[in-house]
Amino acid sequence: MIIGLTGGIATGKSTVATMMRQEGIPVVDADVIAREVMEIDGAAYNQVVQTFGREILDADGSINRALLGERIFSDEVMRLKLNSIVHPVVRSELVAKAEAYQREGHEHVVMDIPLLYESELFYLVDKVLLVYVTPELQLERLMSRDQAGMKQARSRMNAQMPIDEKVERADAVIHNHGTKEETRDELRRIIKSWNL
């Protein structure tokens, strides 16, 4: 079974991904792959530089992700352009890595995909596990985590589908408002109910 793990920015998805690894289920992380494909020898590097210009590069030739991020978070057209370059490469890598785990004998693999809903990637997974917090707590955590002002944090949240809209299409929801132990207990209940 391929489990699509998703949530919203600052909902605690990475924490749940770590817990799943601790439960012995391998995790393929779309964000890690997205970083890898934009490295100097990565599959998307040349096209990203051609599209966004050499001014997004650091002195060593690597892409300055913070600078690129600033540019795309405030410009929908640029964000869509970047996604059209990076996402197809990331998707094929996700599938390849999940298949490699299955060949190694893992029955179940988690695909950690932050934009699963936004990119309509349901066809890649058998079940969707959503990590949920209220939008208010999401905003509070994001401002604290990234030392961001409210306007910047809201802008980053608005770049994703509202978390409340994601609940109805999820096969299971982890409410990540409490302690890590409570989150782990919820995860273990889901793992058991899915016979993982």
Short characterization:
The chain has 196 residues and is an alpha/beta fold. It has helices at residues 13-22, 30-37, 45-52, 65-73, 76-103, 135-146, 150-158, 163-166, 180-193, and strands at 2-6, 27-29, 109-112, 127-132, 172-175.
List the helices and strands and how they pair.
Elements (H helix, E strand, L loop, with lengths): L1 E5 L6 H10 L4 E3 H8 L7 H8 L12 H9 L2 H28 L5 E4 L14 E6 L2 H12 L3 H9 L4 H4 L5 E4 L4 H14 L3
Parallel strand pairs: 1-3, 1-4, 2-3, 4-5
Helix pairs in contact: 1-9, 2-5, 6-7
Task: Characterise this structure.
A 5-stranded parallel β-sheet has the order 2-3-1-4-5, sandwiched between helices. Helix 2 (30-37) packs across helix 5. The chain is globular, with a radius of gyration of 17 Å. The longest helix has 28 residues, at 76-103. It is of the alpha/beta class and 196 residues long. 52% of the residues lie in helices and 11% in strands.
